[in-house]
Each structure stands twice: as C-alpha cells, then as structure tokens.
Amino acid sequence: MPREDEIKTHNVFIDTQAYFEHRFDWSGKILGKLAEFAREGDLSLISTEVTIREVKAQLEEVVNELRDRLKRSESILAQLKLTHSIDDPSAATAVLNGNFEKFLKLSRTKVIPITTDVTSVLEDYFTKRPPFGHGKKKAEFPDAFVIAALKRWCDKSKQSIYVVSRDPDLAASCSSEGPLLHLESIQQLLSLAVVRAEIRSKLVAAVQESNSLKQKVRSYFEKLELVDLANDIRLDDISVEEPTIHNVNIVDRDQNTFLLEAELEVVISGQVRRISDDVDDTFSGPSHRPHPKLEYFEDAHFTYPEVEVSFDPNDPASLSIDSVYFGSEEFKVSVSESTYSFLGRGSKSVTLRLPRRLW
After folding, report:
1. What is the mean pLDDT of residues 286-294?
2. 113, 49 in Cβ contact below 8 A?
3. Helix H or strand E segment including 164
4. Residue 268 and residue 244 in contact, taking contact as beta carbons nearer than 8 Å
5. Do the beta carbons of residue 257 and residue 323 sit within 8 Å?
6. Cis bond leading into 313, ω under 30°?
7. Is the dihedral of CA 104, 110, 113, 119 positive or negative?
8. CA–CA separation, 65 vs 57, rounded Å?
9. N or C terminus of the chain: which is more exposed, having fewer CB within 10 Å?
C-alpha cells in the first residue's frame, strides 16, 4: 500500500471554503501551484455544478462587500487620490468570474453533473447523516447534493477522490477506506502531489528509455490497413521509425503497478499502389491506360495508448511493460495529384486504419 506521504488517488474535489481560504487568488502561490500540478497530470481536479455556482456567488459577495468598505472610506481615499468606488458591480463580478473560469480551464477541471436522485439526499437529511448537522441542517443541502454526485462518480468510475475542505460535515462524509478521502487543506494536498510528481519524473524517464515499449509500438504501426479498401489498391513496404515519447501521465496506481497515458509521435512511410491487370499490348489508343506509378508517403502521427507498467520508484531499472492498449485509430496521409486521380477519391489523401491491439 502507498505510504502516508504518498498520494492515494490523483482525483481531487476542492470545496468552496478552500478556495475562499486562499482569497480566490487563482495565480497565487497555492492555487497557482494547484493548477500547475493539475495541468501536468499529477492531479485531476473534479468539481460540480453546485460548487461552480457557490464560488461565483461568493465572488459577487466579495465585490459587494468591497464596494461597501470603499464607500465608508471615500473621504480618506479621495485625499490619497485613489479610486474610491466600484461604479459597476456587475462588470467587476464578471471580471472575477472570468478569472475563475480561466483557472478551471487551465487546471483542466472536470465538472460532473449533480445527481437527480434526491431520495438518498432526503434520507440523509431526515436521519441526520453527514453532511447534515444538528444545528443548520437545511443549509447543508448544497453539500449533500455535492457529496451524492461525488459518490456516484466514484461508483461509476471505480475510483476514489480527495475531498479538500475544513468543513466538519464534509469531512464526516469521508472515510479512510474511501471512496471519499478527506484532506483539510490544499497545502496538505500539494505536499502529497510533490511526492507524486517526483515519482512521475522517475517513471517518465524510465518509460522514455524503454526499448520494449518502442518495439511494441513499432510492430503495432507496421500493421496499417486502408480504410474502405478497394480491391485493386494496397499498401506496401510500411516502415516505422523509432517512436518519440513526448509525455507520460499517471492515470492510476496500485502499489507498484501504474496505469499510464503516453503521448507518442510515430513517423510512418510506405507506398500506396493499384494492382491492375497487365496492359494489353495488342490494343493502343486514347483510352489505353498504363500502370499508375507507385505513390510514396511519409507522415508523422501522434497516438495516446494506455500503458500498464510495473515500476519500483526506488529502482529505475525495474520498469516492466505489462500491457499496451490502442483504441481504434485512423489517420490520413497526403498523396500527389496523380495518385489522387487514379485512386478516384474525393480528396488528396488516403485514410489508414490502425487495428485495435492489446498486449
């Protein structure tokens, strides 16, 4: 099992309270680092429609509170020749909302829908189960729908998720067994993410040097097929250069078994040609059709297979490629005007298909 200083899941839900704690400073030291880890793939931020609306409602309150404070200090601000009013609260709120939406985009935050099944939420309400407390039960309905949505997502995806919040009612909805795992602060999460980033760095280096993975990818791409294959058209002499591994993201982890998404660039070359009947030498005339020339191509293709590996972070040489999965992929290669004509297609390209393969 992962040590206490190692992250148990890369999935994270940030409560509105945690954003408020850091003053909605999206590019600040804490929230900026959070977005960076999410952008690099060390964390995967999950939010809900309710949470998005809560944050935006609080941003509107912040603008109104700031406007009231500025009005109370107008005389002092005027003496200092400083701006002493927010003339258009709606415009100011729109700016803050826009910055929040940029943060969601940069951090690749996935917004999941709220469950429409209210039965479980009402059951928790009447039996006073978390997140409903004894003193302010009705105020906890938004949190209850958030918790229900997160549990439903975990159940469907078969994954767990960190819930980052100092709210005791949200914390009570979590457990050490999951699927909802509690963390009190974003700082605590970042501390765990640093360890994950260090592991990812070692793992990326090992994967990029893996000849076994590169050979599997090459043999896979050598099995190219033509889409809508005509009887007299075929591929010949397919050649695949050694793939370039640009990036690796950790999708899941079970002890020393990692599920990865790899970004690879593969340069493929070959020829497209028609297998036509021999030319009838006894016939000559304007309709005489000679054999078409071979059409050579060379194109780069990006692919993102799922790769399962065994790896001990303390031993970089321990990497073992357990399986590589490619979905059904297609890509086009350019052909010349002459080949375009003899293929009889509607564009100056041919589509190649990669067979689905699981090693």
Report:
1. 51
2. yes
3. strand 161-164
4. no
5. no
6. no
7. negative
8. 12
9. N
The span from the CA of 60 to the CA of 67, in Å, is 11
The pLDDT tens digits for 120-176 are: 665 665 566 666 665 545 556 788 889 989 999 999 999 999 999 999 889 999 999
DSSP 215-280: HHHHHHHTT-EETT--TTEEEEEEEEPPPEEEEEEEEEEETTEEEEEEEEEEEEEEEEEE--PPP-
Structure tokens at 309: 């590996």
Q: How many CB atoms are located within 10 Å of the residue 128 CB?
A: 10
Residues 29, 23: Cα–Cα separation, whole Å: 11
For residues 109-113, give the mean pLDDT: 94
3-state secondary structure 71-139: HHCHHHHHHCCCCCCCCCHHHHHHHHHHHHHHHHHHCCCEEECCCCCCHHHHHHHHHCCCCCCCCCCHH
In the chain, the amino acid numbered 305 is: P
Enter the pTM of the model: 0.59
For residues 83 and 336, give the distance between their C-alpha atoms in angstroms, rounded to a whole number: 65
Whether the CB-CB separation of 333 and 349 falls below 8 Å is answered with yes
Domains and their CATH numbers in the chain: 11-196 (3.40.50.1010), 209-358 (no CATH)
Using the predicted structure, report yes or no on whether residue 11 has a pLDDT greater than 70: yes
Q: Pairing relation of β-strands 306-312 and 257-274?
A: antiparallel
Radius of gyration of the chain (CA): 29
Query: Can you tell me the mean pLDDT for 28-57?
Result: 93
CA angle 336–342–343, rounded 5-degree value: 85
Interval 214-266: pLDDT, tens: 888 888 877 776 655 555 566 677 788 888 888 787 777 778 888 888 888 88
In one-letter notation, the amino acid at residue 114 is I
Q: Please state whether the peptide bond connecting residue 305 to the residue before it is cis, i.e. omega within 30 degrees of 0.
A: no
